[in-house]
Amino acid sequence: MTAKPPKTSATTPNTQSEAIAKVTFDEVRDSSGNLVGKNSVTFDRTLNFKGTAGATTELWIRDDEFKFTDVTSDGSGGWTKQFTLPEHMPFKRYSLNALEKKPPQSSSLQYIFVWATETPIIDKVTGKDGLIQDGDPYDGDSLEFSGYAPPGMEVEAFNSDTSTGKKATVDRDGLFKLTFDGLTAGNFSIKIRAANGKESSAFTFRVVLDVELSLDDVLESEGGPSVPEAGTTDKSQLIIKGHAMPGESIQLLNGGAPIKDAVATADPGDGAWKILLDVTDGDYSLVAKADYGDEEITKPPRTFTVESTIKPHNTRVYDSDGLIEDNGNTPYNYVIVRGDAALSAQIKLKINGVTEPRPEPTDDTGKWARLVTRLEYETTYQFIAVADHGDNSESNPWTITTGVLHV
Question: pTM for this one?
Answer without folding.
Answer: 0.57
